């Protein structure tokens, strides 16, 4: 009895090996890239990211300088209007902060 079980196991193993060989032949082996090519890809992506970060930072500074320039020109040309807009913006921000803090307290109490 032990011999027939052993023979059956051997037969199953042989069939599995044959099917594995068929599968191995059906699929092309994957090519693993070399370490040098991976390092080159990493270097290239870092350079691209660094370049895009520099462009983004330059655009940020240009927009900031443009906003400051327009603010100064607006202050010089109409100081009363400029100051009233600044005061209105500050008041709206404070009101929104108080409303938000009040809602947050209510949410905390209900928990």
Structural commentary:
The protein has 111 residues and is mostly helical. It is built from three helices and no strands. It has helices spanning 2-26, 35-77, 79-110. The longest helix has 43 residues, at 35-77. The protein is elongated, with a radius of gyration of 36 Å.
Helix content estimate:
over 70%
Topology pattern, helix = H, strand = E: HHH
The portion of residues forming beta strands comes to under 5%
C-alpha geometry:
elongated
List keywords for this structure.
0% strand; mainly alpha; 111 residues; elongated
SSE blueprint and pairings:
Blueprint: H1 2-26, H2 35-77, H3 79-110
Question: What's a concise summary of this model?
Answer:
With 111 residues, the chain is mainly α. Helices cover 90% and strands 0% of the residues.
């Amino acid at each position: 009895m032990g011999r027939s079980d052993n023979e059956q196991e051997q037969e199953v193993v042989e069939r599995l090996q044959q099917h594995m060989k068929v599968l191995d032949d059906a699929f092309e082996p994957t090519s693993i890239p070399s370490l040098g090519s991976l390092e080159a890809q990493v270097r290239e992506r870092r350079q691209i990211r660094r370049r895009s970060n520099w462009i983004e930072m330059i655009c940020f500074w240009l927009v900031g300088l443009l906003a400051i320039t327009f603010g100064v020109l607006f202050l010089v040309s109409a100081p009363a209007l400029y100051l009233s807009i600044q005061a209105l913006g500050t008041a709206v921000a404070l009101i929104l902060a108080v409303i938000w803090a009040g809602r947050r307290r209510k949410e905390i109490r209900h928990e």
